[in-house]
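fold-stage: in
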Amino acid sequence: MQQAKDFLAESDDVYALVADLSSDSFAQATAFKNWSIEDIIQHLHFWNEAALLSLTDAAGFEAFFKPVGEHIFSGKDLKSYERQYFASVTGSELIASWRGLYQKTAEAFATADPSQRVAWVGPSMSARSSITARQMETWSHAQAIYDVLGVDRVDTDRIRNIVVLGVNTYGWTFVNRKLDVPDPMPYISLTAPSGDVWNYGDPQEDNCIQGSAVAFAQVVTQTRNVVDTDLQVVGDSANLWMANAQCFAGAPNPVPEPGVRFKAEV
C-alpha cells in the first residue's frame, strides 16, 4: 500500500527532527495539551504498536488494549497510562524503539490486503484506513513539535491522504456533535505542496473552501484554528464545518482557540 510508504516517510521526517534533541529539549512542553515532545513520541509509539497488533495478532491487540480500557474507564486519562507504559524507556532509547517499531509497522502494512478488516478501539476498519490514520496522527502531533522548536515544516503531496480523510469525515464532524449534516458538502479546491490543484465535491460559489491543502489538513486535524490559516471559507455550512472539523475518532474535541497554535520564534 502506498499509504504505508507515506506513513513511513512521515515518520522518518519526524525522526530526523527529534533524533538529536538534548534531554532538555525532549522534555520541553508543547502547545498541545502541554504535552512534552517525549509525551508525543510516546503517544505515537503506543498507537503504532496497537495498529501493528490489530493487523497481525487480533488476540494480542485485545490483550494490549484491555488494561488501557480499564485505566480510562476508571476515570484516569490516557496520557498517564502511556507515561506509565514507557516509564523504563526514555530519551534516546524511546526514540530508537519508536523508530524500529514504526519501520516494522510500515513493512507489515505495505504488503497487507488494503481491504482487510482490523480491530480498533471503536468499530473495525480497513487496513488502508488504519495506516492512513497512523500517518494522520504522526503528521498532526508532529506539528506541535515543529512549532515549539520553531522549525518550518516542508510538506509533500503525501498530505493528500490526510486531506482525503478530512473530506471523508465531513459528515462525521456533525454526527459526532449530534448535529444535522448540512447537504450538500461544500466544494473544496486546494493547492497541493507541488502546486497541483485538488478538487472535491460539486462547484458551488456560495458554499466552498479554497486555499492550501496544508491549511485544510491543519484544520481537520485541529492543529490550527481556521482563522489562523489561508483558507477562504464561504457559506454557512462551510464555516460551521471548519469551525468544528474533526477527522479523527473519539468524543467531540474542541478546536484550538485562534492564535494559540503557531510556530515559535527562536
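fold-stage: in (second)
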Amino acid sequence: MDFIKNPAQIEDRSMEIIAPYLSEMDLSFEEKKIFSRIIHAAGDVDYAPIIKISPAAIDAAKAAILRGENIFTDVEMVRTGINKRTLKKFGGEIFCKVAEEDAKELAARENITRSMAAMRLFGKKLNGAIVAIGNAPTALFEVLRLVREEKIFPAVIIGVPVGFVGAADSKAELAAQNKIPFITVSGTKGGSSIAVAAVNAIMYLLDNSRN
C-alpha cells in the first residue's frame, strides 16, 4: 500500500481534508487554525460545531504567551503534550501539581480530587496565566470558583475536560461566565489531546518553527 510518509505532508493533507467542514462557518483565520488542530487531534470532524472560542480568547492567550506567562495544567498528559521548546522561547513554563505531595495531602484532607487540589494550591499564581484543563471537570470547577470567590483572574482558560460526570456542566459554566476569555467544547467530548491542540495552535500562530 502506498501512503504518505513525510510528517509535514501528512499534516498538510489532514488540514485539506478538514477545511471543507469549516468553510461554511463564520471563522477568522486564527479561529480556523485552532478549530483545525482540535479536529485533527481528535480525528473527529463532529467537533466543528461544538468548539467555542470567546471573542477575546485568542488575543488574550497570545498576549500572555508573549509576556512570558506560565501555563498551569490539570494533568501530566496536558503538560507533556504542550510544546515546551516553543513556549520557552517566550519565557514561559508549564506546571502540573497533580502528582505532588501537597496536592495529594490536600485532596485526602478535603476529600476532593488531586486535580482540584492542585488548582487550589496554584491559587494566585494563576493570575494572568494560561490555564489548560483537559481531563478533570473538578479542576475546572475549582478554577471558576477561584475566579468567582477569590478574584483570581487567569488570562485565558482552555477548559475541555472529558467524561460523563461533571464535564458538560463544568464547560457550560465556563461558557456562561464573562470574566475570563475561554476556549471550550460543548458536551462530554474533550480530553488532554484537545487541550494540548488548542494551546499549541495558539503558540504556532506566534511561532510555527516547531523547534
